[in-house]
Amino acid sequence: YKIRQVDLYWEEDTMMPQRKRKLSDMKEGEEFKPLEFQITPEVIGFDCVAFDDRHPWYTQDSPFGSRIAPSVDAQFCAIRIAVNHRDGALTGALFEKPGLIHYIYDAEYFEPAKLGETVKVTGRCTKYYEKRGRDYMDFEYEIHGEDGRLIGKYRNSFLLAYKREEK
């Protein structure tokens, strides 16, 4: 099938355009719908290539008892839950136009996610604010293993739209 870009997202030519919810539509304190997914060999492989990190623990057993996912997977988890919130699934282009500027992030890792494990990602908008005439949003996320242990925390801030200053 042929794909084309329609407004803020990708869709098949045969589909009718519909308004998708944007991250900037979220209100301060609003939570994402929790997202669960399994750590598969494909998820680990994607992370290894995306982050150019090929540690042997990602391709063979580690001291944690099995293969593990790279810790930078927290960033991918944040993208997945945001896209799931907007589209209901990870099905196409990830970002809105005009693009959000991801300018600050902070991640903490406590435990590795293991191959075959189902992880649960939760998140919420913590702050919506204006600074120097520009709109910003802050988000925080938690990733938990299937046994409930905290795998990681991730926080990020977005500049919603960049406006050039008039001279």
Question: Can you tell me about this structure?
Answer:
The chain is an alpha+beta fold. Helix content is 15%, strand content 34%. Strand 6 and strand 7 form a beta hairpin. The radius of gyration is 18 Å and the shape is elongated. It starts with a strand and ends in an 8-residue tail after the last strand.
Please outline the helices and strands.
Elements: E1 3-6, E2 9-12, E3 35-38, H1 41-50, H2 73-87, E4 101-109, E5 118-131, E6 134-144, E7 150-159
Antiparallel strand pairs: 1-2, 3-5, 4-7, 5-6, 6-7
Summarize the structure.
With 167 residues, the chain is α+β, with helices and mostly antiparallel strands.
**Major β-sheet profile:** 5 strands, antiparallel
Structural class assignment: alpha+beta
What separation lies between the terminal Cα atoms? 47 Å
Unreliable stretches, pLDDT < 50, 5 or more residues? 1-17, 92-96
Radius of gyration based on Cα positions = 18 Å
Q: What general form does the structure show?
A: elongated
The total strand number stands at 7
Strand order of the largest sheet: 3-5-6-7-4
Put simply, the count of helices is 2
Question: What integer is the average pLDDT?
Answer: 77
Helix content: 10-25%
Strand-residue proportion: 25-35%
Question: In sequence order, what are the helices and strands, one letter per element?
Answer: EEEHHEEEE
